[in-house]
Amino acid sequence: MPTILALETSTEIASAALLHGDQVITRESSGVQTHSQTILPMVQNLLAQTGITLAQCDAIAFGAGPGSFTGVRTACGIAQGLAFGADLPVVPIVTLQAMAQACREATGAVNVLAMLDARMGEIYWAQYRFLEEWSTVAEPTLSPAAGVIPLADVTACGNGFSVYAAGMEAHPSMKRAQPEIMPHAKHVAWLARIEFIANRTVAPRDAQPIYLRNKVALTTSERFAKVTA
Q: How many other CB atoms are there within 10 angstroms of residue 134's CB atom?
């Protein structure tokens, strides 16, 4: 089985994972401002613990977003650098699908709605169905909470549900919500192994983050308008 090194820095939690055989070893740290300083030491620690060199990995995977602009750029850039230096392919994994994988592992759910707080009163969300493998029911989208419309009875996961729970009351199908489930490199690694075996990889230069928003903050007037609306 291929050995996958995975990185995930799209939220406040940064994580790295090394999937080798049936064993996955992980490291993580919190604090989005320090992701660029902590992710490489975590990678070095994982490789040192396992005795596996970077060149012995088969691919570098990363959580491609959506998520924090700085976070997804950090993971993409570091994955590109590591892969280029070791002459390895890259496997971008949609952050929301990695959450769906985590939700299935935790609950056995086959219909999953993954939701991340996108700030500015909006949510990144997507819906997935598992039947032998994952299929996308609703593509990753950015919308207000009221715009999150499940297409079936689902299990919801992610902090998008907890932050905007009041706006989700019209969706009783989400009563099994798992707001504590967030993106993690170990789930990126498992999904990346499937992609690698299917030969769905990219060259380091072609790896790109997934952005669903063109601006990262509201102006003062926009914030005031929201407060007074």
A: 18
Query: Smallest Cα–Cα separation from 185: which of 69, 102, 90?
Result: 102
Confidence of residue 216 (pLDDT cuts 50, 70, 90): very low
Q: What does DSSP say about strands 13-20 and 90-94: parallel, antiparallel, or unpaired?
A: unpaired
Tell me the residue range of the domain where 22 lies.
4-95+183-206
**Based on the domain organization, do 20 and 53 belong to the same domain?**
yes
Q: What pTM was computed for the model? A: 0.90
- Look at 105 and 162; give whichever has higher pLDDT: 105
Identify whether residues 16 and 90 lie together within a single domain.
yes
Sign of CA dihedral 95, 97, 98, 103: positive
Q: What is the CATH number of the domain that holds 103?
A: 3.30.420.40
Residue 156 contacts residue 136 (beta carbons within 8 Å): no
What DSSP character marks residue 12? S
Angle, helix 185-197 to helix 95-107, in steps of 10 degrees: 100
Tokens of 39: 């992710």
Instruction: Specify whether 52 is located in the same domain as 113.
Output: no
Q: Are strands 111-117 and 59-65 parallel, antiparallel or unpaired?
A: unpaired
Spatial strand order in the sheet of 13-20: 23-30, 13-20, 4-8, 59-65, 90-94
| Residue 218 counted as domain residue | no
Q: 187 and 91 in one domain?
A: yes
Residue 64 has pLDDT above 80, yes or no: yes
219 falls within a domain: no
Query: Is residue 130 in a domain?
Result: yes
